[in-house]
Amino acid sequence: xxxxxxxxxxxxxxxxxxxYCDFVSAPPKPGQLKAYADALCEEIxxxxxxxxxxxxxxxxxxxxxxxxxxxSVMVYILDTLKSTFENRRRGSYIPEELTVxxxxxxxxxxxxxxxxxxxxxxxxxxxxxxxxKELKLLGRIHTYEDWEKSMKLARMCGFDxxxxxxxxxxxxxxxxxxxxxxxxxxxxxxxxISVYSLIVEEGTPFYEKYNPESLSGEELDKWEEEDRLIYxxxxxxxxxxxxxxxEISNYAKKGCESRHNMVYWRRGDYLGFGMSxxxxxxxxxxANTDSFGEYTAAPYGSVKEKETLTLDxxxxxxxxxxxxxxxxxxxxxxxxxxxxxxxDIYKDAIEKWTGNGMLIEKDGRIFCSEKGFNICNMIMADFxx
Length: 385
Ligand code: SF4
Description:
Elements lengths: L2 E9 L20 H14 L8 E10 L7 H17 L9 E6 L6 H9 L4 E4 L6 H7 L5 H13 L5 E7 L6 H12 L5 E6 L7 H6 L6 H24 L3 E4 L2 E3 L6 H7 L4 E4 L4 E4 L2 E5 L3 H6 L5 E6 L2 H13 L5 E2 H8 L3 H4 L1 H9 L3 E4 L2 E4 L1 H5 L1 H6 L4
Parallel strand pairs: 1-2, 1-9, 2-3, 3-4, 4-5, 5-6
Antiparallel strand pairs: 6-8, 7-8, 10-11, 11-12, 13-15, 14-15
Helix pairs in contact: 1-2, 2-3, 6-8
This protein binds iron/sulfur cluster (SF4).
């Protein structure tokens, strides 16, 4: 009996570093693109033992900007994954969901047609903002028009499952300007929309300019209040357009929820390949090195951290990740996983938040009410043991 497995492949290259980005990504230096693809394929091949017990259900190629690579490289990586996981087991290798993250300005018809032929059935084409001034502020390489072109090309090439990312919480952004971005994104009816609040990370050019600690209390309150109103408006508009908010930051048309991300929120098994890629297998978490030199020298065995969670940590993680989703916590699954009744473990938190209507308990599930979703972080904090 094979267990389900999700695979994440990290591509750490971008055309240019964005002003707010603290991901493991950078413009490639000469020779790095090839060296990295070779290392990645070596790591995949050397992970063949996983194929004895696991069956790949979803694949997500993220970054960075995976679409920076020529499509022949993408095919090379996917073929390696296929031969590694197919040869070791009976049956076919067909992931249900195979997503590639793309940036507008790095796509063309040939690339997209090659993706389609390689079995890629979902794209994530980041918009971030439909306001070119905001895009410039963020340091993105594309304009709204570039994104439009990419969306049209992707549709033309037959992609019918597309996510787009949008960033809220930009300093100076208003409910009106954000609604404009949202409506411009909706013209192309992406099946899935992720709305992320900007986090101003230390060490980024953005931090120098908009360090939250340098703002007055009044400015900070105004910023946070605007972000809250943006979220309320987003819920309203997207629900009018037929999207369901199935996770704090994620909205989808019926049946188009990200299967890959659901695995993270449900604490399923996932295997990460590439620099800094994280894995979670049979309750053990580990992550690869984020050093290019270390990774390419020994791609398999470049694990820098390994962590086995305590029972309390596992229960906490399971509860607060599930609360991020509209499905919430399954009381039965919690018992099956930990042999404990969730009401015994979280008596006070459940009573407190169901008592004020922020949590609902129904049909064996505990989940956030609509109001509760807006303060999900506060609720989740009470589920940490
Ligand atoms: S494209 Fe994404 S990963 Fe690359 S620098 Fe910009 S935010 Fe970071």
